[in-house]
Amino acid sequence: MIGRMKRAASMLLAAAIAAATGASPRESSPREALIRLERRWVEALERRDAAAVGAILADDFVDTTYRGERRTRGEALAGLTSPQRAPTTQELSDLQARVYGATGIVTGVNHVTGRNPDFSARLRFTDVFVRTGGVWKAVSAQETLVADAP
Question: What is the pTM of this model?
Fold first, then answer.
């Protein structure tokens, strides 16, 4: 009986770790985990889910926006829940992830469409993650506005 309880506890712990890191039991690579985490981040942004975004961002996270402004983790989370923030949909493309030990870099394009007021922008981004305690956390983000081809 105790052996079964230990195995069950080990399985629950493994499932909790997998959920926290964005990994699945069949995780084949850290790159796939980072791509999944990037998608979860964007989904949380669309929902304005500050708790979910906060779980992804490291305490010392810093973002350099497409306007060249620097935002801390606190400022990014506050902006997410601001009543002035327009509702958006976001579509990621051209995602690529690279891993260097405990550091991961995800690059791609985010096509953001907003309502009230209506707008559309394509942003090329680079997000940097660090794996500490078995969990990937975003430590830095940078966006660049992509001009439409003439």
Answer: 0.79
pLDDT (tens digit per residue) in 121-137: 999 999 999 999 999 99
Of 93, 85, 86, nearest to 122 by C-alpha is 93
CA 19 to chain centre: 14
CB 64 within 8 A of CB 141: yes
CB contact at 8 A, 64 and 72: no
Domains of the chain with bracketed CATH: 29-145 (3.10.450.50)
Supply 122's token pair: 């394509």
Helices (H), the chain: 2-21, 30-47, 50-56, 73-81
Q: How many CB atoms lie within 10 A of CB 59?
A: 10
Which tokens hold the place of 123?
């942003």
- Asked if residue 92 lies in contact with residue 143, where contact means CB atoms within 8 angstroms, the answer is no
Tokens of 101: 């030990």
Which DSSP category does 66 fall into?
Answer: T
Q: Are strands 70-72 and 88-100 parallel, antiparallel or unpaired?
A: unpaired
Degrees, nearest 5: CA angle 136-112-63: 45
